[in-house]
Amino acid sequence: MRLKPLPSFTGLLDWAGVIPFLLFILLFLILPSLYLFVGSFQDSSGRFTLENIRALFTPTIMSAYWVSIRISLLTALLGGVFGFFLAYALLSEETPTWLRSALLTFCGVASNFAGVPLAQAFIFTFGRMGLVTVLLREAVGLDLYEMGFNLYSFWGLSITYLYFQLPLMVLVITPAIEGLRREWREAAENLGASPLQYWWYIGIPILMPSLLGAMILLFGNAFGAYATAISLTGGLINLITILIGNQIRGDVLHNPNLGYALALGMVVVMAVMMSLYYLLRRHSERWLRQ
Prior knowledge:
Blueprint: H1 7-16, H2 19-40, H3 51-55, H4 59-90, H5 97-110, H6 116-126, H7 131-139, H8 154-178, H9 182-190, H10 195-223, H11 227-233, H12 240-249, H13 256-289
Helix pairs in contact: 2-13, 4-8, 4-10, 5-8, 6-11, 8-10, 10-13, 12-13
């Protein structure tokens, strides 16, 4: 007679592979979040206070949130739109296989190329004495900075962010585009629909949840960026992540509890964005339920 393992022992074996993941979530997500929340309502002596929360509504900090939201929205929209078109072009039947593989490989590398190396690469290329800037000035007499371009400005930082935002969009949206069935397009064409009508009434509604989710991912990716911004601009642009770094690591503006409150405000902004995404996704999914 074969003995069966005890139910309790079987249950432990089922949880054995999940326990390390749960510990990781506890140590690196739940406990830091609780510490962040509690620290936002404490002063340097550990006493309860609301001064850190009130400080979030000062003009300087509100401006930092607004600039960070603007640059995140801009790069999310531009990276999302152009990334979608690039992904669709890569999946076209006319695109050679070797080119598709090469560009997808490049997107995988470029989407993770950020921080100090990315900032230095753009400075060496598009800075005042960068390679492209000097070549254009010496070869054709075109001075980018006299024309108003400035790498160390809002638009310069946005262009730098797009270097990793656009490839990330390509990687995220490619599987969703591949999920569009050829039969749907053939059926629409047989019923007399034009390519524009197919995308407007079928393709875009089906892809809308994926597009919205990818753009929210791009927004969060830019909203939390720190190393690229501080390395490129040196703090000239008033971003919320730079303010947090100044409060936690700075010598003059050292106030960790205010830094915790600033980070808590970022969590609130992301929660609002996720709520908008949920509402928009529910609205877009109505087409699929009809």
